[in-house]
Amino acid sequence: MGDIYLQDANAAEARRLTFDDVAIEGLAWTPDGRNIVFSSGRSGLSNLWRVPVSGGEIEPLAGVGGNAYAPAVSRNGNLLAYTRSETNVHLDHPSHPRRAGRRLTDQTHLRDRRHAS
User: What are residue 10's DSSP bridge partners?
Assistant: First the structure.
């Protein structure tokens, strides 16, 4: 579990920007240096968020959707690249190993690479 901290090269202590104690799954600076875009499960599924480096309210990035990881922002700031993932989970009944399995559940999560602007 973790949070995002910001530390000036000359500062003795880091300043905490997030207070969620959840995994951070990638982050990127915006070109103007005013915000950090990061992936976190702070609302359940991993999503992309923006936090001002000056501190303040953390906002979800619009139009991204869930299961988003590893953000990267283009140099001019007009493009955002990230990874979305999908996982299919199928559980079969173990009492009949010679028969075709009977599916007990079918859980799907997204898993592919997407780019958003």
Answer: none
